[in-house]
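Reading a protein record of the kind used here takes little practice once its layout is understood. An example of such a record is reproduced below.
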Amino acid sequence: MSHSDAQSLASISTPKASVLPSSSFAVSKRAIPNRQAIALISDHGDPAAEIGREEAGGQNVYVRQVGEALAKLGWQVDMFTRKSHPDDPAIVQHSLHCRTIRLQAGPESFVPRDQLFQYLPEFVEAFQKFQAKEGTNYPLIHTNYWMSAWIGLQLRQQSNIQLVHTYHSLGAVKYRAVAEKPAIAETRLAVEKQILEQANCIVATSPQEKEHLRSLVSQQGYIEVIPCGTDIDKFHVMPQSEARVALGFQPHEKIVLYVGRFDRRKGIETLVRAFAQVKQQLEANWATDLDTLILNPSLPLPTLRLVIVGGSDPAQSDGQERQRIEQIVRDLGLTDQTLFAGQIGHDRLPLYYTAADVCVIPSHYEPFGLVAIEAMACGTPVVASDVGGLKFTVVPEETGLLVPPQDGTAFANAIERILTDDIWVRKVRRQASARVQQNFSWTGVAVQLSDLYRRLMAQSLLAPSAFTALDPMAATPENIATAAVRAENLVKAS
């Protein structure tokens, strides 16, 4: 598909968000009493994919964890994605009421994100065929990322649904950090603005994202802040010594950790160059620390280690970026101090966070930054770029430090402070863990989303005159309560 064809697809008109009469309320035929089916769409981010491989990162975790948590709250959750490998099963059942459904849309192989738009009409058609086969209708669809937004807008042309969207990444922000925009850029920007204006609700993951979105759309668009979360049963504080034994790290090592994909926008080069500065300064200081040498002559001197977690197939784009980073490591003489750990299962990630002295997130931009709250949940201080949602998740001086993006010296200074200020760091560890426990559990996120979904579905049962076209929350509490009862009765009768 040519760029002009892609723009034509993007310009297909979609109806404005509207309130639907009660007769149009869609109830899944397969829903059991009190369990309504809803759809989460993540076309390129497979919720069942192994985290760390190509195109598998924070969005995959978000959709999977939200889906499973919503299922525990009483929903039937179907998560739709594109099938990208012939050996991948068409349906993955995560729990009794939560599953990933892989649809045929384009080749059953990896396709870079910037080339996926041409296959979206196939995704829409496959989604509709699945609904017809299953006898399932979804009164609410929650789309993730701009291409899924386009899918949602097309589906709403043909059926009455409430449409919720989470961006995960904004082209308007992303393209500021690149020298040359890709061919798909204008299409993406157009779709992002269209979904912002026409969705029933936009879910922003931080106040910073909401503020930015407000600058792109009229004030009547409805935006609600619901953060991302983490599994606090999996990511929690444990003894660092135990984690290091499990991973084969030494007690005297000072470990600097990166977790994420290999992508230039993730800023790994900045981290590597900052690490080289820290190594030069700290190892010189440690070697001349007479107090330590005299008082503890038998103890080994501290050493620095950089641990980089993540990566995929060397033949794919993130593999090429890894090769570039490996060359920089060699050029800086850091080969012996750097471990490329590769893909790590999500179950073992807490060990790496716990073993580390600091987790560094040098991204050029992050709309939220799941890695930050995973690290903080384990009590690990974070040094992060002062951008996007990281301004919300990381509290400077309390849970870590924020520094200007792509500033290697600033990152080096922040890392050095965390590695040397032991008294302050003990306080930071406690505060980091407490912040996540109080604000970022997946259960808490799902409860907020569930409440939003029910309000939007209740709205669809009321007469169109009850609300303005783009203000879902214009309903009175009394009307919402009445509609919610009617919705529950309809579900029970299905």
In short: The first strand starts at residue 37 and ends at 41.
